[in-house]
Amino acid sequence: MNIAVIGGGNMGGALVRGWAKAGMASSLTVTAHTQQTLDRLKEACPGITTMLDNSKAVEGADIVVLAVKPWLVEGVITEITASLDNKLLVSVAAGIRHERIDVYAMPNIAAEFGESMTFIEEAPKAAVATELFSKVGQCKVVPQRLMNAGMMMAGCGIAYVLRFLRAMMEGGVEMGFYPHEAQEIAMQTMQGAVSLLKETGLHPEAAIDKVTTPGGITIKGLNELDHAGFNSAIIRCLKIKN
């Protein structure tokens, strides 16, 4: 199965690197706006094919992944339409609808490391896209009404999680750790929390109960987060609309 990725920027590049790490390099053809971007991808992913011509890239593909900026989608589809016969067109451009697109998918940049949370919209050919994106992480097929929610939780959400990590780091530095030490501690703590939930199946509140004691420092810290509107801020940022 040959795949053409149109757009080798942040999202397209992450997908290409993730698929290449999954052993698919020889099946990948990637385009970008500049040769410099293609050279970087080629260096990172030996075995992929790169080119500047979108239409030529599509000709030999079975699946075309449209990974350009949203405002470029219509123009690129017009450019490649003549080469799209009998090919599956998958778009990862947020919020853009077009009659020629077969499947809408919303991965995140952790695809590069095989850890994306990808949302795929229900469609007749969604199973093919699910098989492809499962190579770079977990997939969830959802109705159209939940695609924006999925984007906020997993696409934008990865940035919100990173901002929380940064805040932990800043607190660690204020308490005396060097920045690289604070980053290591914050990342391992978050990884440990995620592993705890995965391995035990516990609800987060049940896990929290395991580290809070009456009158202890943990419950005091949690209450400070509540006083500052932490939960409300997270929910509000997820519900922001364009």
Task: Report what the structure shows.
The protein folds into two domains: 3-142, Rossmann fold; 152-238, ProC C-terminal domain-like fold, CATH 1.10.3730. The protein is 51% helix and 14% strand. The two termini are 36 Å apart. Strand 7 (116-121), helix 5 and strand 8 (137-142) form a beta-alpha-beta unit. Helix 6 packs across helix 7. It has helices at 10-24, 35-44, 54-59, 73-80, 126-133, 147-174, 179-200, 204-209, 217-227, 230-238; strands at 3-6, 28-31, 49-51, 63-66, 88-91, 103-106, 116-121, 137-142. It has 242 residues and is an alpha/beta fold.
* Structural class determined from secondary elements: alpha/beta
Distance between the termini: 36 Å
Q: How much of the polypeptide forms β-strand, as a percent range?
A: 5-15%
Low-confidence stretches: none
Number of structural units classed as domains:
2
Q: Mind telling me which CATH architecture of the largest domain this is?
A: 3-Layer(aba) Sandwich
Protein traits:
elongated; 8-stranded mixed beta sheet; 242 residues; ProC C-terminal domain-like fold; 10 helices; 8 strands; 2 domains; Rossmann fold; alpha/beta
